[in-house]
Design a protein that fits this description.
The complex is a heterodimer of chains A (470) and B (325). Chain A is mainly α and 470 residues long. Chain A is built from 16 helices and 4 strands. In chain A, β1 and β2 form a beta hairpin. Chain A is globular, with a radius of gyration of 25 Å. Chain B has 325 residues and is an all-alpha fold. The model of chain B has no long low-confidence stretch (mean pLDDT 90). In chain B, β1 and β2 form a beta hairpin.
Amino acid sequence: MKILLTRPGLSFSFIIAISLIFGCVFAKPKMYSSFPVTEKSYNGSKKDSTSYTGQMARHVLHNSLKKLAGKGNGKPNSALKAKMLSYYSGKDAGREIIDPTSKGDFKIKQTMVDQISKGKNLKGKTYKGIINGFPGQMTGPEVFEFMIDKASSSNKGFDPLTGYNYPQLISKFMMGAVFYSQAVDNYLDEKMGADNKPNNKPYKKGAHYTGKEHSWDEAFGYFGAPAHAMALSAKQAYGIAKKKDMKVADANGDGMIDLYTEMTYAHAYYAADSDKAGTKYMHTIVGAFIKGRQLITEANGAALTDQQRAQLMGYVKTIKSNWAQVIAEAAFKYAGSCYKDLEKLRTIVESNGDASKAFAAYGKHWGELKGFLMALETSGRDLGEAGVRMNRLVGFGPVLLGGGQVTGIDSNGNLQTGGNRSMGEYQVHMIKLQKLLGDTFSLKARKNDVTSNMAGLLETLGSSLAAEND
Amino acid sequence: MQLSIGEWLPAFFNPQKRIFWGYMLSSIFIAFLWLRLVKKTNLISCVKQIFDPQVWISRSAMADYKVMMINTVLMVILSPRLLAKATVAYLVFDSMHLLFDGRPFLSTILPQWMIALSFTMFLFLLDDFARYWLHRWLHKVPILWSFHKVHHSATVLNPFTVFRTHPIEGVLFSIRSALVQGFTTAVFFFFFGDKVTLLMVLGASVFTFTFNFLGSNLRHSPVSIQYWRNLERIVMSPAQHQIHHSNAKEHIDKNFGVALSVWDWMFGTLSLSKADEKLRFGLSEEQSYKLHTLEGLYITPLKQATEIFLRFVSRIPHFQFFKNT
């Protein structure tokens, strides 16, 4: 201590070192919120330019629609269909939030969709291109309307004749065809152009945010992460979607979960799921979103320079590649689940047991797999040969116990099944699909990897490189 | 590509390799015990025999070292283009699903230690069996013999003679290894899943370790250790492998086996060792060969193989024009 007092230079260094240490340890992780208003034409009283309520309303619409898709009683149900369509294509007021709702001490602030944002729907934002992975050569909205129709007349969303699990198909495909597609093929694509939604003009007349600020916010909203995601571990972010851990979810400490800023949805949830296995998708994506938003904010309402835009596009690249990986990781995981399900089914069938439960689980996992793969088609990035191979390996439906598979849709709109593919062959397809996804998207979490232990075993055998004689 | 000592030095520290320092030491120790206790050689003579400069720095030995270093670099370049064991494993694993229409799990039938032991033993046996046959073909098929001659051109045997191998032969060994390892791993993994493990000592298969620890390096050495006659029908003694290198007429095409001689016994190529038999190593005199030169070790085999190939092709009726050109 004495030495510090007698040598001012040293004590100054000491203070800086201590401040740095404390700064690192106690620094508050950045949140995606409270970005100041920089739009010069705005004269109102708002101080925060951050706004992505429409996106969060759509997350809630999606969650609710998924719940509704599992409500059928096995008979045509026009009331249910109409209700599902009101969540998909309607804009009507008075739609209640069916999911997420309060559970125990996990109290949710909003109960109506309009409390988050008014007049929103999902159809208007659905990818309009043809979906090759689904039978019928339909556009994105047509696929959803077809599935909604089938789901409403199914028994709890499951059709045992085709193996289709509609809540899963609808949900996983929607995350892609609406959220992912809108973010990576619209807001982070053309809206990042120099002349499209420029930063020196409001997003729309009278708005308190600039064109670039709001475009960026909308893309962030679609990812589905809570605003305080950087302060959360993968397990915590994942737990929030499962309505666990009220303490970490309630970032503002008001005793309630705000569905606008404090909930984990859609791909953010799947990023967290992968990250539990050691990847860093959620923090990489949210981190890039925050840095990009800071960059736009620092432009202070002026048009972005070429250099700023180039830097911003660097963040865009990170977001797009990691986001695609999140979806591919999920597809990889469910390909592994389907493989295991087929194993289980074989054992049950051989022992003449009741396979209905295992078959339903297989259909559920297949629906997730298929939905995620169809989602990958909606990014605006042509997957080329890899995309074609993925669709061929999976086909239009899970291979059924009798060897059939969905082959198409007839003129009456009914799904047709046919063919005779063995379950063993379909297992090989799942292995090949995992390899294809792993190679195409450079996957790291690789959950449910069918052959990982075989690869590890091969490694223990050592190299056969050297030219050694006997 | 950096050509450095670091490329081949790791073999001295890798217990999966025969020239691992531990195996070298154990071989010296076994040679010493054999010479002292069985052959009743005096101490000085023991040391002289083991560290005989003729063995370690002869022209033949120097050629061994050169080939070892050149091949290491060549194999690093070639390796990405060779058949990978993973490729074989995936192919076999996929095919097994079609063969059995699914994946019948047998992992509950056997305890884990038995699965591990079965895997390790099966791998060792199949590998040794495949080595026997490839080695036999290297001798019997003329075009292959033109490459394998490189190994047999050693006139003095020392542990590094194991590396005296033409790179084409190295490629064949690599394919054999990929097929055996890929096939075995895939079949066991298919039936037993995550329960399959390799029984290891110091990171090497317990059988590889045992074979090497018990003096595999003495196969290529002048120390002629024999086993009991009945044991030599099952396990290859150093003396038996030295017979394989002998250029005496009665020893030609004998003892192709590596760790086990049982294959030779089964397929009629076994020769048991005789006490104090004087052997001359190298190629028989009528086989012209530029011994120990890089040209002789690398180029001549390619020339000879080409000649054999052209002779073979010219015998096919449609390719008669070869004779006229």
